[in-house]
Design goal:
Structural class: mainly alpha
Helix content: over 70%
Number of helices: 12
Shape: globular
Strand order of the largest sheet: 1-2
Strand content: under 5%
Order of helices and strands: HHHHEEHHHHHHHH
């Protein structure tokens, strides 16, 4: 039984991510047409677990790199995630008026500004990933990291998953279809997080592939757990729980060659499994 203290590991790294995001999106002091800069900051710093950037950091450390190496990927992925939530909340999508106890961006700033906020955050994410943070340029296989993010965030990843989700609806009865949605919409960004960390660390294709597969499996398991928490997809509850266990095992297998340095990644995988079973009461 592992005694690894996951929260003690995550807390200071979460603070580092939050501080870096805040510095990248400072309070506007000058001209800010339509309060666009203010809305960008609002959307990113609204809260959340920061699991995608934390995965990037844990992946980098698992392969011998530093927090600093992973920060461009960590901040870029959180900007993409924030943009996706801003657009998902729009009336044309999920029509949500509150997120994390506060008005959604289109409620607080207007639908037109919400669209522009998403556009601006997506563009800025690639600038941060390519150019670095805190005055330090990105390192390693930067061009490939940019391509990896584009793949998993676009039509073959998150955006395609959102389109499939809109068509499939909220009561899917086929596990393969459900996991296809989860793999694209949620798994894609987790896969990108872990893979980009390996690429910025300059690791070879075998290491990057292991990290990418870890992230994808985790992302699917994470969404299964969210479904249980939100009482979504009730017809597939028991099958989804069984699949979550299998996906957690896959995560642990993928990072086995990294040894003790990958214990945070193993703990993160175990956490999502426990989260699903706790929510299901099983």
């Amino acid at each position: 039984m592992s005694t690894f203290d996951l929260e003690s590991y995550l807390a200071p790294r979460r603070e580092r991510v939050d501080a870096t995001l805040s510095a990248l999106l400072p309070e506007p002091t000058g001209d800010d047409p339509g309060k666009l800069r203010e809305a960008m900051r609002y959307s990113v710093l609204l809260g959340g677990k920061r699991m995608r950037p934390l995965m990037a950091i844990a992946a980098a450390e698992a392969v011998g790199a530093t927090v600093e190496t992973a920060l461009p990927a960590a901040c870029a992925i959180e900007m993409v995630h924030a943009y996706s939530l801003v657009h998902d909340d729009l009336p044309a999508m999920d029509n949500d008026t509150e997120r994390r106890g506060k008005p959604t961006v289109h409620v607080a700033f207007g639908e037109d500004k919400a669209i522009l906020v998403g556009d601006a955050l997506l563009t800025m994410a690639f600038s941060v990933l390519a150019g670095g943070v805190d005055g330090r340029p990105s390192t390693g296989r930067v061009g490939e990291a940019v391509a990896k993010l584009a793949h998993h965030a676009g039509i073959d990843g998150m955006v395609g998953g959102q389109a499939l989700d809109l068509v499939a609806g909220q009561d899917i009865h086929d596990l393969d279809l459900l996991e296809r949605v989860h793999a694209l919409k949620t798994g894609g960004l987790y896969a990108a997080s872990a893979a980009m960390a390996g690429l910025l660390a300059g690791k070879d294709d075998d290491v990057v592939g292991r990290l990418e597969r870890y992230g994808l499996a985790f992302g699917i398991a994470f969404q299964h757990a969210d479904d249980v928490l939100d009482d979504d997809q009730p017809a597939l509850r028991d099958k989804a729980l069984a699949r979550t266990d299998a996906l957690v095992a896959q995560c642990i297998d993928e990072v086995a060659p990294f040894g003790e340095a990958a214990e945070p990644l193993r703990a993160i995988a175990r956490w999502v499994g426990e989260r699903a079973h706790t929510a299901a009461g099983k």
